[in-house]
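Objective 1b: paired records.
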Amino acid sequence: MASLSGFKSSIDDIVAEGDRVAVRLTNSCVHSGTVFGVPPTNKRVTYTETTIWRVVDGRVTDRWCNSDTLSLLQQLGAVSLK
């Protein structure tokens, strides 16, 4: 996403079984452009993500990803859970 710059990911866990590989990540980036209608704040934000890949014959054939978008929106000030 071009509106999130300085993107860095750190791997928290990797689990593989059969033809699936699951990775739990922590992402960190700077909110440098409009995201979900929120103008840039230039704040560093951090959120987690879990991705699962299906690997067949050494090639990724499928990918499923779940990001903690609620946490990201809270940090951007777009959502408040009070």
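Objective 1b, second protein:
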Amino acid sequence: MGILSLTSHEYWATVSGGSLKSLENQEEALAQWGVTAIEFRADLIPFDVFEKLITRNKWRVPTFVAHFGIGANAKHAEKAILKAITADIHGCICHSRSEILYDLQQACISAGKSFAAAYHSQTPMTLDEALQEFDTQEALNPLFRKIAVRALRFEDALAIIEATQRASAQGKTPTVGAIFGSHRWARIVLPHVGSAITFIIAHKVFNEEGGDDEQLQISEVDNLQKFRLLPVNA
């Protein structure tokens, strides 16, 4: 199965939880729906549960491990990623501002795993900041470039939409934009401006510093796809 082309849009799923059973139930539901890939959020899974999860050698779809720990949590990220790359997974996703980002990148490359350095924040970004972040990630030769931030105002969401459009138009590494919070309308718009992936979840999850990120859920995607088929002038 191909992962990420410059000409198609994909649905990936984010999975987190406190028990192995919960993680497996979410994985099964998402795989049955037909996602392209699944991202297990190691920073939102107890490490003993993560260890049990990662020792499996059968995955329903291509699987990634993500850990966005920085600062005091950088070592936790390193521990999880180094554990993950010994498993039969497709790749790892780290925080682009991690103090040990380059070490993690090299570890993934040496292990033959795909790598991405996504930027996640509960703080909005300006257009110029987002464009600079996409350029910074491009230099890392990642599988994709991603910015996911909380939009507090309409203008905050527009900044990510425009930055995603400009970066995507460059025709370089696939570009992903995402918005946390109540401006979830931007998640519908972003694929139309070149965002390569829509990340969905199996059910509502209160898992981020800012609380419920109002991410798109499986149950909403069918309606989302119908919406995208409407004529532009409807």
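The longest strand covers residues 114-121. The domain at 10-224 is CATH 3.20.20.70 (TIM Barrel).
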